[in-house]
């Protein structure tokens, strides 16, 4: 009995200590964002600001080059929002087609989805840039939004897995009642997809929100920057004098993602485990 | 009979209607750019003037006249070689620890451990990471408590890449969740039988747990490897490829060639080389997998 208690103490001490390490960088950023400028690096290890201030947030929000973070956040919300809507709608349609409708060519198309899944975005970025520059899309939001409306391989695969779990008898009885494929999709499949659509929405949003290389390549005027690219310009080590403001804006940039996490934790854990999402 | 063909026709039409977004996207934004860039890899092209055919010059230059290409390849390989296995091992150990007990507080911890995976790839964390390892950062402040005089971790060729590897290992949350789910699916009868037979913890681990989750390990290995090879943000923001190109990741080098120097032909060759390399490694891992991945007999669908 005693040994068991001791084991428990060791166990929980260990997992608590590790949890602390896991969140420490984020905590440090949060605490630094409320510190006085002189305090951030002179008293690095202290997580509780001596004279808490919100000045960093006020100064940071002012942004740079006459553009405030209000613009950057607005851009991020537009980009991530449209990207998410496009990805989720198109991926759901494609997933249904591939999972449920038997037609010639389905297998080959499914193979292209799986192969694309393993095709890193970074390899495609140079050829895509050339294409978008020919189309005159550079320095617009189009390169970051239009492809999203044509399905994301990851989400197609994830939603397909989910659709396969819905009993096929439901489709068949609806078919006997005279429903077509679209009717079956709309009345039978779609209402059952709520959990997986929630998961796809969350992940799609936070990937688009965190995306850095895409906007860095396709956008070049600062008034179009999303938060990720703005933050990197704002935190250029050769130019920054006010680190408090950098940490304040960094903290704000993570806020939407963390809020989603707190509210939809269950869906995120499910999403990661059922489809083995990358991290 | 006639009704069946009508159904088939309907299915063919509806099938292509439903998958049409993907087909359009695949042809326009994947196949077309990839084929174009293969062609461009044999040209000199700066976007403004039209491409000029130069044969294998880009490829020859890459392998024989470009030391930075080799630095980038070396740095990326080193990163992948350490980051991927370390992250997976760490994820597995923590998943194992979590699978030993069950309680509400552990569910909370599990969520906390996942947070780095969620935010670790962001610019914000990259900026913070740079300050943590900086000369007047947290690490050196911590070391000075013990009287150790720290170094400039990011400015030293021996340590800079390790700060990036650590950042990646810190994000072990997502493979951890996958391993945890896989561990819960291992039938408990197997453990009970083994315990009755007197098998030690280590024995149970190596002959039951590990073989049972090898399919999950395979999946994670390939997934993490592909993304490891293409790591960008960390190197671009934290170390800018320095010092002395010791953390110049392949994706960063490609980015600079394409978008700073506007050598689109050369950058296309770089992209295709990486694509071929990642493809090759994926095939190698798949080919060796039937030697170490264990599939249950009934799963043969």
TrEMBL record, chain A:
Membrane topology type: Multi-pass membrane protein
An annotated GO cellular component: plasma membrane
Transmembrane segments: 9-30, 77-96, 108-132, 144-163, 184-209, 243-264
Keyword Cell cycle found: no
One GO term (biological process): transmembrane transport
Annotated InterPro entries: MetI-like, MetI-like_sf
Keywords recorded for this protein, A-Z: Cell membrane, Membrane, Transmembrane, Transmembrane helix, Transport
Family: Belongs to the binding-protein-dependent transport system permease family.
Protein name according to UniProt: Carbohydrate ABC transporter permease
Source species taxonomy: Bacteria, Pseudomonadati, Dictyoglomota, Dictyoglomia, Dictyoglomales
TrEMBL record, chain B:
CDD domains: TM_PBP2
Membrane topology annotation: Multi-pass membrane protein
Pfam family, one: BPD_transp_1
Location of this chain's protein in the cell: Cell membrane
Domain of life: Bacteria
Domain ABC transmembrane type-1 residue range list: 73-285
Gene Ontology cellular-component annotations: plasma membrane
Record SUPFAM superfamilies: MalF N-terminal region-like, MetI-like
Keyword annotations: Cell membrane, Membrane, Transmembrane, Transmembrane helix, Transport
Transmembrane feature ranges: 12-35, 79-99, 111-132, 138-154, 161-181, 201-223, 235-253, 265-286
A GO BP entry: transmembrane transport
Family: Belongs to the binding-protein-dependent transport system permease family.
Full protein name: Sugar ABC transporter permease
